[in-house]
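Internal tracking record. Fields below are filled automatically when a chain is submitted to the structure queue. Please do not edit lines marked as system-generated. If the sequence contains nonstandard residues, flag them in the REMARKS field before resubmitting.
Queue: standard
Priority: normal
Entity type: single polypeptide chain
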Amino acid sequence: MAAENEAPEIAWRPRFSGLRTFARFPHTTELEGVDIAVVGLPFDTGVTYRPGARFGPAAIREQSSRIECYHPVLDIDVTDVVSVIDFGDAPVVPMETETSYASITATLQPLAARGIVPIGLGGDHSVSLPELRAVATRYGPVALVHFDAHVDTWDTIWGNRYNHGTPFRRAVEEGLIDPERSIQIGIRGPLGERAELEQSRELGFEVWTARQVRQASVSQVLGAIWRRVGTHPVFLSFDIDFLDPVFAPGTGTPEIGGFTTWEAQEFLWGLVGLRIVGADLVEVLPDRDPSGVTALIAANLVFDIIAVIAASRREQGHGATDRAE
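SYSTEM-GENERATED OUTPUT FOLLOWS
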């Protein structure tokens, strides 16, 4: 029995209490023995329509508090296979794109150098470029598996080369991704001209529009991903506007005709076995998400990505990263 004025010892605490780390994984910047690091990227200076995704990482963490470590579909307790931490947020400077990009890359590069898989919580989609700069320092040009309503391969928007519509063109130009091993899935919505849809294919990407995905099966799309990527190192980028705004209203550039949460999970679960070396989930906009459902979905999809990486490691017969290489 606790002494008078002494707090009782409680072994188990409700998941609505405590600090808001992602899924209550420990917050630390110590990297020894770590396999996966969740990193907040609270930057949205690259948006062209609705701002506010800088608050996405905090909202995703808040909604992740109920997530437990066992994934029933993949039949895996991720902590049995991988060590996961919440690394905190990369420092950014609002309105200073180049400074923020440099900071994001500098934050993630030590993780990538150790073979730790960084999973970025965006932020707008422009953060993928500095993430890829960090990952490519270890792996060279990576394959891109990209779920999104938009191709994000524009050259410029209003004369600006660095924004959430241009990261993957810049990544190709900088030799960070191999477009011949890359695929974009779920593209849809009105455009200014046909050339805007074709620009990714001209760069070498395989592109599946939302309608093409609907006319195929999940297994056919997954087969296309596997044929495209093979055993190459993969960066997985998931824009929450891949989902229909009925499911994810809290995003900056919503497009109707999108996908359900179940379909998104089926696509992610089918990636077990890919060599994922970096990932992000971007464009969560909390002030357009009054019920918190978009951030809730985002949190669960990030956990799905973590579970996919863990299940892939289990298939390969080990739970450690390739830090020794």
